[in-house]
Queue: 2 jobs
Job 1
Amino acid sequence: MLTMNMNYKNLKESYLFAEIGEKVRTYQREHPGEHIYRLGIGDVSLPLPCTVIKALHRAVDDQAFRESFHGYMPECGADFLREAVRRYYGERGIELSSDEVFISSGASDELGDIQDLFDRSTAALLPEPAYPAYYDACVMAGRRVEHLKTVRERDFLPEPEGRLDAGLIYICSPNNPTGAVYGRELLRDWVDFARAKGSVIIFDAAYEAFIDDDSLPKSIFEIEGARECAIEICSLSKTAGFTGTRLGYTIIPKALERNGMSLNAMWRRNRTTKTNGVSYIIQRGGEAVFSPEGQQEIRKNILVYKKNAREIMRAIDDSGLWYCGGDNSPYIWMECPFNMKSREFFDFLLNRAQVVGTPGVGFGAAGEGYFRLSAFGSPEDTREACSRLRSVLRT
């Protein structure tokens, strides 16, 4: 007898960003010709770096000749790309072996799939506000979720508490949606907590390339003891503009073991069963990201987004409203004006200024009354959006 996965009934009717997209499409149908200034969904607007494009072209040409053609790639990633990621971490003093690096089709896929390693009886701890896909993936897997509400006074960065009890702990730094970054001491507290509890931290480092402050950790493996309690998942989507080409990587140290089982070996077995590897062409493009030229070019693009973030921050500064993020992140998390609810402010901005952001309540109950703005738009649209934001906040 066929039985469906009834956990899907526990999901919200629509995903946050699908809901936003539908509202914007409805507005455009009713107001044809009006330009929408999108500071909502975190998609990039700058093209791929030239070094990456050249590598992609060379890889396409390789596929035209028998001698250089590639079919299925190694399920855990090509040696050349795993080694490039290993060197990237080594330059920051983090020693990895290349077989601790797993190449993926993007962080979003891995954040959900990684749950295969843990029995569904293992609860997950989600500090809120949080990226909604964490919660949805847990619900789909039938996993119990413990919500840890955070507070504005600490920029919505949570502290571990002895009463907390969850086998999986999701941490995102720089955080999506708040843009806040975990300091070294706070991250050490979480590593110590996980080791004491026997928990595993799922560390989402998708925005690590936006951290300029050398005192702030880009990787959880900068913290002593993290190799025994953490998995790091990263993406080239926001780092290098791979949102449309899909590429990321996951770091699982060999030292990470639970119940006498190696999580590194388990994940290798999972990937060799469930995937056929990422395309040769895309992996060659990813390799170029980690070249000296690639690093220089992606840095130029990131500086454009960081300039957008400063533009948004100045607009909010002029309004006198509270916010966090922006300095080492592409996201700014602001309080809604006039005591508005998050969705109310979304409708207000869309209808009054044609500016789209993301209502904070979509990231959990702790996000009610707050709003996320993204710096990934074009500089021209960001400037105009900020001008309109100033105008409506003065009204």
Note: The mean pLDDT is 96.
Job 2
Amino acid sequence: MELDKLPPVLTAGVTAENWEERRRGLVDVLAREEYGAVPPPLAGEVCVLSCRRSFAGKGMFESLRFDFSAEGERFSFPATLIYPAGGQKFPFFVLANFTSAVPDKYFPAEEVIDGGFGVISFGYNDVSADEDRFGEGAEKLFFREGDEGRCGKLSLWAWAMSRLLDYVFARGLADGEKTAAIGHSRLGKVALWAAANDVRFRYVFSNNSGCSGAALSRGKKGETLAFITRMFPHWFCEKYPAYAGREWEMPFDQHFLIAASAPRTVAVGAAAEDDWADSYSQYMACKGAEVAYRLFGMGGGFFDDAPKTGKAYGRKGLFFREREGTHCLSRADWQYYMRILRR
């Protein structure tokens, strides 16, 4: 991949001082051409359904319900909040997960508590079903089936991540400089998109997010734009499938998505046996986004032409690592992300 053939992250005259204008331009392109705009914030109510001491007494476990209303519609979804016992502010993860269970195979909850972190999480299907239909989930607060210009479901799940962040700030639980969006696979795409739209996420951890996430679409191996838009058209806005087979004509690529979080911290996790997500394309997207970090004297360390398994890339603000193994948000991944957030 020749990075100079990608659409440029920086245009003439962009500096650190006016970067925010260009950053917003990157987000606008992605909203218009790929994901659809994330819906606006809504004031809602949060009900604490239960609260108990847990994790051998080391932490708190709360079951929550988020209630919203708009345009004559009402919608609620559940969430779970865990944090260390004690009355201070904590580094906090907002986790978009495949299930509401805590812990589960992608979420070693007690280990995260032991590290001194809080996590607020939700099961993505509780916000909007991962199916090619609209009208029953959070979308009914904003648009109806068949509405022109509707967003895809990745944007709806990103909207939910920001509402959870609203809550931990309102509760005074989160250290505002240590707030992180995290997700795996399709939800790694969501974490990147949530952080691009909500600068209160100071960190974003995108694990094995692949096609239409942290991986360049141009020249991608494994899952392609044609496959993903055929299988999951509801994830995206209605314009995006037209780029299938025409990736080199796109006025953007996924390095825009990574750069849209600069100068905040992005860490992209990949796996050596995850050919579908394509580690090389994710590594090259990070290299393509690095120019935005250089505006701030950040970045560095992406010297290899292709990633080497087990080697951690990046220095300040932008990181990449391909570990051994398959497509999973593993304990080793959590440990890697916790190390970055801790420092």
Note: The longest helix spans residues 153-170.
